[in-house]
Structure formats: C-alpha cells, structure tokens
Design brief:
heterodimer, A: alpha/beta, FAD/NAD(P)-binding domain, D-Amino Acid Oxidase, Chain A, domain 2, 3 domains, eight-stranded mixed sheet, B: alpha+beta, two-stranded antiparallel sheet, FAD/NAD-bd_sf (chain A), flavoprotein (chain A), oxidoreductase activity (chain A), FAD (chain A), Nitrogen fixation protein FixC (chain A)
Chain lengths: ~425, ~90
C-alpha cells in the first residue's frame, strides 16, 4: 500500500464520496478509505436527502439511486401530552421533477453513491480504520491505517471521518466537543405495509411525508423528534443535546419509547414491526463550532467540519456541497502543484461564501439561546396547545372574550414583560 | 411487534464484535469515588455501561460507536477508539 495518490479521502459518507467522486471525475488518482464493512454500515441519518446538492454531483440521480419517497408534505407538530398544534405544507410540485427532497435509507444509498465513485475511478477500500495522519514538517503527507504496512501517501488528505472526527482532533483543528455541541439521537426503522403508510399519512405510492415534532416529544428538552415515511417503513427518532440528556437524566431509548407510545403518535405505528435501532451524534454546535477546515495538505468536510444546520435539519446536503468544494479546490491546487495551507484555503473561501456558512452564521446563537432558555420548549408549546384548545372549543363565550382570556393566561403565567423578552430573544436568535 | 426494551432494540442489530474492547474506562476508582450519578449508564443509547458495585462493566460488543460516552463522561475517563476495521456495529438500513 505504499503507493502515492493525488488524494486520500477518509470516510465514505455523503461528504467523502462527493469529494472522491468529483476528484476522480477530474482525473485525479483517489483512494477512499472506509472503516465499515461497506459504505453506510456506520452511517446514520433521520432520512431526508435534498435534491439540489446531490444533483450538482450526479444529475438526475433520482432515476437510478435507491431512494424511498419524494417528500410532498412537511408537517410541524407542537405537541403536548394529549394534544398537538400542527402546521405544515403539502405541495404536489415537490412530487414531480426536479423534486425538493427524498426520504432515504442510508445503508443502501451510501453503497450506491460509493459505487458511482468507483465507476469514476475511485479506489475504495473498506474495513480499514485510519489511525492517524502522517505529518512531516507541518504538512499532512498521508495516513496510517490499521492494516499491516498500512501507510499510504497523497498530496492531499480529506477528512470526511464524521462527527467524531478523531483525526481532526489529533491535528489539533478542534478540541473535544462539549456536551451542548452535539445532539444524541436515536431512531427505529419500523416496517409497515405500503397501503397502511399511504392511508395513515394521506399519501399516494410515490409521495412521502415528514413530521418534525417539538415539545412533549422530547419531554420539553432542547431537541426534536421526527417521523419520516419510507416506501414500506417509517423512521421514527428523537434527539436532544447530550447536555440536556445528561441534565434531565434521560435514557434515550426510554424517550424513544415514550414517543412511540404517545397518544398522538401510536396510531401511526400500530401493527408495525421494528427492523433496526440506531444511535448517532449530530454536530449541532453550528457556526461557533466549525473548526479549522484547511491546513497544509489537509481539508475537513461534512460532519467532520461540523457542517449541520440543526434548525432546518440540513446536513447531508452541506456534506455533499462541502465535499464538492473540497474536490474543486484540490483540482485547482493540483494545477498549481501547490498543496500548502494558503493554496488549500480556497476551500475555506468557497465554504464561507456559500449557503453553508451563511446559514450557520444566521443561526449562530440559536442553539445557545434555546439551551439557556428552556421555556420555549417546556412552557410555550403547552401554552400554545391550551390556547388553541380554548379558542376552538365552542362553549358560548364570545370570541373577543376568549382572545382576552388566552392573552391573560399567557401573560399571567409568565408576566407580560417576560413574554415580550422571550419573543424578542427568539426572534433575534433566528432572524 | 414494536420494541419495548433496550434489549429488544439491540437484538435487531447486526454486530461483528472484535475480541478486544475499543472502549476503556481509564480509572474505575474515578467512577466509584467521584461520580455518584454514573451518568454514562443512563445516557448511553445502547446501555453499554453497567455499574457493578465496584467497577464499570463495559459491554462494548453492543456499542453504536456514537461517541456520547467520550464527550459526556464528566471526568474524561473513557478512552474511545474505533473498533478494528470491519468490526463493530453494521447498520443494514438507515
């Protein structure tokens, strides 16, 4: 294995494969290293894959990729113990080309995507852990793997090694995360016949629905839950920041079972068969947690660079876009034959100039605000439910009087000034 | 049937366990004397950590390799590595 490559990509998730694919397509000699038995065997995602960034890598991928359903409806639930306030959008324009997003199962999808890379000339080796980057005179020149004589060299090493990015930490590009910078999420895939899914979610065969749930879905802790429809299964999951999980002394699987047996959710799952249980961390530190992304002979992409927009549940799209930007940077660096930090910093410029860092920057204070002010999830969601119940219950009270009662009950519970402060703070965090 | 317990959930997953643990509790005394909550036994999504009165039992074979224990241990008392290539959890679906 002591050959030299143009590029070594560590990891075969969406970021790594986007990078490897694009490099190989541009004629570079690429080695991609995956620690799992196959690409996707270590990767977990709730299940929404956005069309735009994937299509920029493989045009019309939906014609051949193993996708589940195009999402035509996105629902948002503010859930209390025995009630829910809902909001959402369903649009048939999302059900036809070019589509907005799809539900996917990652193990089949990642294998397919990696195969597309191989077709472009990527050399993929699986079942191999990269133990460390080989650094010489301050420059990354290769990697050391857990194979015998497992040293390989390249002009550039791309770290697409996921949320834990032990390699990024070894290089000192980021410190160990704090528990409030990551969300611990658990999910189950529950098999259900197609007809039942279509009936229960009001869908046709090639239509999907996503539900994001707030409030009692995390017992009021900072986090969200989700229900996504696949062809013949449902992904249901829940996560909170690890710090919230620790503070509330929650067992994540108990929280998942609480959700599955919740009176608002149980009917969706009735008769379902659990097929898989998965746990994963999501990097949710946002803008402030993004590490150094370019160094001498090395780039960080995807989760390894903390590129997740938790507010909009976007991650795999940022992974793909960052992987592609890294590849384009490497292609340019190759033409200059300069792989120094200043040359590779072009990647950082591309990233900071794109929707990725712009969006992370927009929400840079959101997680912090909601973590430090638990009232949004704990108090306001139940309040909204009580208000809706009061407003829509016909009991002979004139509507204007009802409105007054609702306002009084909200300001009475927290105080008018506090409510105004809360509203202003939330607006500031997401504006 | 939908699962109810963590044992039932773990039973759904394919694992290719290595002979050697990729998780190491550095100092069991720290768990015993400094950590009354033993919070890893609560937040670990696979119930890998179980307190057995004197020391922490680490059931690494059922680990999801999520990294929570490394980050969440209040005493940075867990050495966390990836299992050997091709070993550990094998997700088949999502």
């Amino acid at each position: 294995m002591s050959e030299k490559f143009d590029v070594i990509v560590v990891g075969a998730g969406p970021a790594g494969t986007s990078c490897a694919y694009t490099c190989a397509k541009n004629g570079l000699k690429v080695l991609q290293i995956e620690r799992g038995e196959y690409p996707g065997s270590k990767n977990v995602m709730g299940g929404v894959l956005y069309r735009q960034q994937m299509e920029e890598i493989i045009p019309e991928f939906w014609k051949e990729a193993p996708l589940e359903r195009p999402v035509v409806e996105q629902r948002f639930w503010m859930m209390d113990k025995e009630s829910v306030v809902t909001f959402g959008y369903k649009g048939l324009e999302w059900g036809v080309e070019p589509y907005n997003n799809f539900t996917v199962l990652r193990a089949p999808f990642d294998q397919w995507f990696a195969k597309k890379g191989i077709e472009q000339g990527v050399l993929l080796i699986t079942e191999t852990v990269v133990l460390e980057c080989i650094v010489e005179n301050g420059k990354v020149i290769g990697v050391r793997t857990d194979r015998p004589d497992g040293e390989v060299y390249a002009d550039v090493v791309v770290l697409a090694d996921g949320v834990n990015s032990l390699l990024g930490k070894q290089l000192g590009y980021h410190n160990e995360f704090r528990p409030d910078e990551v969300a611990l999420t658990v999910m189950e895939v529950i098999n259900l016949p197609k007809e039942k899914i279509n009936d229960r979610f009001n869908l046709e065969d090639n239509q999907g629905c996503t539900i994001e749930l707030f409030g009692d879905s995390t017992k009021g802790n900072l986090g969200t839950a989700f229900i996504y429809t696949n062809k013949e299964s449902i992904n249901i999951g829940v996560g909170t920041t690890l710090s919230s999980m620790i503070k509330a002394k929650l067992k994540p699987y108990d929280l998942l079972d609480y959700l599955k047996t919740h009176s608002m959710i149980k009917p969706f799952l009735e008769g379902g068969e659990s097929a898989e249980y998965l746990a994963h961390l999501i990097p949710e530190g946002g803008f402030h947690s993004v590490p150094k992304v370019a160094g001498n002979g090395v780039l960080l992409v995807g989760d390894a660079a903390q590129l997740v927009n938790a507010i909009h549940r976007e991650g795999s799209n940022m992974a793909m876009a960052s992987g592609k930007m890294a590849a384009e940077t490497i292609v340019e660096a190759k033409s200059r034959n300069d792989f120094s930090e200043s040359s590779l910093n072009l990647y950082r410029e591309k990233l900071y100039d794109s929707f990725i860092i712009k969006d992370l920057e927009k929400y840079k204070d959101a997680a912090h605000t909601f973590e430090n002010h638990p009232q949004y999830f704990k108090d306001y969601v139940p309040m909204m439910n009580r208000a809706a119940s009061k407003f829509f219950t016909v009991d002979g009270t004139p509507k204007r009087e009802k409105q007054k009662q609702i306002m009084r009950s909200i300001t009475g519970e927290r105080g008018t000034l506090k409510v105004l402060q809360d509203m202003y703070r939330a607006w500031k965090a997401v504006k | 049937m939908s699962t109810k317990t963590i044992e039932e959930k773990q039973y759904l997953i394919r694992f290719k366990a290595d002979k050697k643990s990729h998780l190491t509790v550095l100092d069991h005394d720290v768990c015993m004397t400094q950590c009354p909550d033993k919070i890893c036994t609560i937040f670990c999504p696979a119930e890998v950590y179980k307190w057995e009165g004197l020391r922490m039992q680490v059931g690494y074979e059922g680990c999801h390799e999520c990294g929570s224990c490394r980050i969440g241990c209040p005493y940075q008392n867990i050495k966390w590595e990836y299992p050997k290539g091709g070993h550990g959890i094998v997700f088949r679906l999502a």
